[in-house]
C-alpha cells in the first residue's frame, strides 16, 4: 500500500518500466528511501547500543550506516548508468549499475569484518548489558521498518528488473534476522548474566559477511557474462520460429551491457530456394518486431537449407538416425553436402550439453566415431564435424 503510494507520487510515468528515464526514477526512489530509513535506524540502534552497552546492537547500527552509503552508491549508479552511449562506450553505461552494486557489497563485507573483530574482543573481555524496555521496543520498530524496506526493494527491483535493487532487498531481509537475534540477546540479558552479547555480535557479523558475499556474487555474475535468463532465450526462439519460412534456429548469443541493454544474435534456417529479397524482408521484420517486443537488439543471420535435393534430404535423414545412437549429441545444424562426383564431404555442426567437458582427444574420438558410423552408410563420404556447446538450452 505504502509502496504503491510512493511509486505513484514520485515516479512520473511509473507504468512505462522500459523507459530508461522511468528506470532512473525508480532507482532514485529506492536509493532515497533506503538512505532515509537506514539513517533513522542507525540513530535508533546507535543510541540503544550506547545506552545498554551492547556491542551487538552497536554492530547493527554501523551495519545500517553502511547501508546508507550503499543507498547513495545506488543513486549515483542509476544516474551514471543512464548516460547515453558515446564514442568510448557505444553500448551505453548500463553496467555501471552492476559496478555500484559491487561497491555496495564490498562496503557490507568491510563492516562485517570490522565487527567480527569487535565481537571477538567483547567475547574475550565481556561487559554487562543492561536491559531496558524502551531500547527493546525501538529495536522491534527497526525490525518492522527493515521488513518493509526489504519488500519495497524487491517490489521495485522486480518492476524494473534491477539486480542491484533486488540484492538490496535480500540484504535488508538479512538485516531483519540479525536485528532479531540482537533483540533476543537484549531480552535474554534480563534473565541471565551470561556474557552472550559478544557471541550474538559474532553471529550478526557473520550474517553481514554472508550477505556481502552473496551480493558480490550477484553483481559479479553479469559483469563476467552470466548466462541469460531462460525465459528470454525461449522467447527469442519461439517468436522467431513463428515467422514464415524459418524452420530452425541455433547459435544464439546474448550480450548484456546493463538492464535494458541486451544485444543478441541468432542463426535462422531458411529454405535455399526462397528469393533473397523476400526472405530478407521477413528476416528484417523479425529483427525489428522481436527487438521491440523483448526490449533487446536482435541480429539474425540467415542459414539457407537445401530442401529440394533428394541426395541431401536422404543424407540428412540418415545422419539424424545415426546421431540418435550417440547420446551425448543433442542436435545438429548447418548440414550440407559439398563436392563433385562420388567423393563428397558431409559438413555439419553437432551440439552437446554445456556440462560435457571434453578434452581435445575426446572430441577427436567423438568425431571419428560419428564418421565411422556414417562411412558404413556412405563409404565415399567424409564427415567434417564441428562441435558446439549448448550453453543456452537451444
TrEMBL record:
Q: Where is the Cation efflux protein transmembrane domain?
A: 33-224
| Top-level taxonomy | Bacteria, Bacillati, Bacillota, Clostridia, Eubacteriales
Q: Where is the Cation efflux protein cytoplasmic domain?
A: 228-304
Instruction: Write down the InterPro entries for this protein, in alphabetical order.
Output: Cation_efflux, Cation_efflux_CTD, Cation_efflux_CTD_sf, Cation_efflux_TM, Cation_efflux_TMD_sf, CDF_Transporter
What family does this chain come from, according to its entry? Belongs to the cation diffusion facilitator (CDF) transporter (TC 2.A.4) family.
Subcellular location(s): the record lists: Membrane
Any one GO MF term held by the record is: monoatomic cation transmembrane transporter activity
Name it.
Answer: Cation transporter
Residue spans crossing the bilayer? 28-55, 98-116, 128-149, 198-216
**Superkingdom of the organism of origin:** Bacteria
A Pfam family for this UniProt protein?
Cation_efflux
Task: Please tell me whether the keyword ATP-binding is annotated for this protein.
Answer: no
Amino acid at each position: 500500500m505504502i509502496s504503491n503510494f510512493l511509486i505513484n507520487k514520485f515516479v512520473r510515468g511509473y507504468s512505462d518500466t522500459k523507459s530508461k528515464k522511468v528506470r532512473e526514477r525508480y532507482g532514485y526512489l529506492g536509493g532515497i528511501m533506503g538512505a532515509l530509513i537506514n539513517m533513522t535506524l542507525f540513530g535508533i540502534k546507535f543510541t540503544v547500543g550506547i545506552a545498554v552497552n551492547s556491542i551487538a546492537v552497536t554492530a547493527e547500527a554501523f551495519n545500517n550506516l553502511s547501508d546508507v552509503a550503499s543507498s547513495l552508491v545506488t543513486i549515483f549508479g542509476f544516474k551514471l548508468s543512464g548516460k547515453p552511449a558515446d564514442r568510448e562506450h557505444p553500448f551505453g553505461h548500463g553496467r555501471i549499475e552492476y559496478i555500484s552494486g559491487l561497491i555496495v557489497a564490498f562496503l557490507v563485507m568491510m563492516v562485517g569484518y570490522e565487527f567480527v573483530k569487535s565481537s571477538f574482543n567483547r567475547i574475550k573481555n565481556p561487559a554487562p548489558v543492561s536491559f531496558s524496555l524502551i531500547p527493546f521496543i525501538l529495536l522491534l520498530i527497526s525490525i518492522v521498518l527493515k521488513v518493509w524496506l526489504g519488500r519495497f526493494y524487491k517490489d521495485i527491483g522486480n518492476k524494473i528488473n534491477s539486480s542491484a535493487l533486488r540484492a538490496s532487498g535480500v540484504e535488508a531481509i538479512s538485516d531483519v534476522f540479525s536485528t532479531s537475534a540482537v533483540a533476543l540477546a537484549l531480552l535474554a540479558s534480563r534473565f541471565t548474566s551470561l556474557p552472550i552479547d559478544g557471541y550474538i555480535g559474532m553471529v550478526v557479523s557473520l550474517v553481514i559477511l554472508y550477505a556481502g558475499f552473496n551480493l558480490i556474487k550477484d553483481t559479479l555474475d553479469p559483469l563476467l557474462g552470466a548466462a541469460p535468463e531462460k525465459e528470454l532465450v525461449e522467447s527469442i526462439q519461439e517468436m522467431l520460429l513463428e515467422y514464415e519460412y524459418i524452420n530452425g534456429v541455433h547459435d544464439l548469443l546474448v550480450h548484456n551491457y546493463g538492464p535494458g541493454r541486451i544485444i543478441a544474435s541468432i542463426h535462422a534456417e531458411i529454405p535455399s530456394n526462397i528469393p533473397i529479397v523476400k526472405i530478407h524482408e521477413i528476416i528484417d521484420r523479425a529483427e525489428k518486431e522481436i527487438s521491440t517486443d523483448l526490449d533487446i537488439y536482435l541480429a539474425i543471420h540467415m542459414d539457407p537449407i537445401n530442401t529440394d535435393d533428394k541426395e541431401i534430404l536422404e543424407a540428412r535423414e540418415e545422419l539424424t538416425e545415426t546421431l540418435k545412437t550417440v547420446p551425448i549429441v543433442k542436435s545438429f545444424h548447418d548440414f550440407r553436402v559439398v563436392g563433385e562426383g562420388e567423393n563428397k564431404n558431409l559438413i555439419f555442426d553437432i551440439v552437446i550439453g554445456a556440462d560435457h567437458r571434453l578434452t581435445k582427444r575426446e572430441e577427436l574420438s567423438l568425431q571419428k566415431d560419428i564418421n565411422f558410423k556414417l562411412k558404413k552408410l556412405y563409404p565415399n563420404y567424409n564427415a567434417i564435424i564441428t562441435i558446439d556447446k549448448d550453453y543456452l538450452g537451444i
